[in-house]
Amino acid sequence: MNIVQEYYDRINKIIQTIITEERESIEKASQQVAQTVLDDKLFYIFGTGAHSIMPAMELFLRAGGLCNVQGIFPPGLTDFDGSPKTERITGFASRIFDWYGVKGGDLLIICNVNGINPMTIDTALEAKKLGIRTIGVTSVEFAEHAEPNIPNRHVSNKNLHDLVDLVVDAHVPVGDALLDVPGVPVKVGAGSTYPMIFIVNSIVVKAIEIVAQNGLKPPVMLSGNIARGEQYNQKYRDKYRGRIRHFE
Predict the structure, then answer these.
(1) Are the beta carbons of 88 and 109 closer than 8 angstroms?
(2) Strand 43-47 to strand 107-111: parallel, antiparallel, or no bridges (unpaired)?
(3) Would you say residue 52 has pLDDT above 80?
(4) CATH classification of 3-240, choosing from 3.40.50.10330, 3.90.870.10, 3.40.50.300, 3.40.50.10490?
(5) What is the pLDDT at residue 59?
(6) What is the dihedral of CA 100, 61, 50, 112, to 10 degrees?
(7) What is the per-residue pLDDT across 148-159, written as a single tens digit (0 to 9) for each?
(8) What is the spatial distance between Cα 226 and Cα 215, in angstroms, rounded to a whole number?
(9) pTM over cut 0.90
(10) Rounded CA separation 16/23 (Å)
């Protein structure tokens, strides 16, 4: 089989599993996100790993997405952002919450496909301590099969899906990569990006529909790269300026 076709088939199978098995969890997550719009509040999304940061980047100020979202982007998290690798540092989450203004009663989506690293677990534990409502987007299978006490694990050996209020399972296999190639000793083809991005966008589009069904115009961003895009978005820039970090 053509390896590109095989890769497509494997990704598609994961997404189909999400559609079948995570429908109820996505619906519940969407209801919570929609309520933040109805209450004129922000919701927060934190991708707590070097590549798991991508779902937070995807939702933040995104064409076709909600404007009332604060992406959390601490320094040192991505692989291109230098050292130290903050995803492997404990004790940093409380300072991040302080800087972004996340507090008790707020809604926080925590995205991490393996759900085991120090930043991820610290974030979930700090959120629980402060009374922050949490949705975890993660792979339960990956976390439960990650060995205890490996270098990238939080010292507690806890898993994200055991700590959050609501879990949306990304159904990514252990190790992330999906394909076998003859002569290559490890699997190839990352499996987590598409499912994680699909889940968070699904939560948002359903939330937008819920808000509209409640008779309120949801604050949806228009692409700034089309005619009238910047003018359309100006009202949201005026509304959220001073409330959202990184928002000019």
Answers:
(1) no
(2) parallel
(3) yes
(4) 3.40.50.10490
(5) 98
(6) 80
(7) 999 899 999 999
(8) 27
(9) yes
(10) 11
